[in-house]
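Summary of Year 1 activities. Much of the first year was spent building the evaluation harness for sequence design. The harness presents a backbone, in tokenized form, and records the residue chosen at every position. We chose the following record to illustrate the format because it has been used consistently in internal testing since the harness was completed.
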């Protein structure tokens, strides 16, 4: 299921915080990153309500997916969602995310 906060990019990352494994954010920001990675074909595990890896929790599966994305894109592979990582994720998959969001919103 595709669920996310309205205008997630601006709301979740306007100030571009740094997100790390183990921290409990529950703001929708981690969900947004999970959705972007999933759109990009990255394995984010099977946690969450729909067993699709989307659970707004920064665990080990998400960290592995972030590291793989970072390596694939030649940016520092530290497993942390920093400004460079989120900006690149959004640049690569944000358009698709917005299309999916609009479809879900109009259901």
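For this record, the design step produced the sequence shown next.
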């Amino acid at each position: 299921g595709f669920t996310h906060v309205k205008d997630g990019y601006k709301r979740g990352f306007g100030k571009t915080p740094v997100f790390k494994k183990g921290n409990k954010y529950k703001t929708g920001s981690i969900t947004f990153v999970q959705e972007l990675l999933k759109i990009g074909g990255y394995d984010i595990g099977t946690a969450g309500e729909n067993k699709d890896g989307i659970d707004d929790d920064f665990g080990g599966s998400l960290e592995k997916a972030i590291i793989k994305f970072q390596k694939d894109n030649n940016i520092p592979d530290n497993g942390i969602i920093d400004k460079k990582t989120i900006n690149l994720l959004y640049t690569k998959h944000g358009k698709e995310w917005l299309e999916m969001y609009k479809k879900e919103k109009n259901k």
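The chain is about 50% helix and 0% strand. Quantitative recovery figures across the full test set are reported in Table 2.
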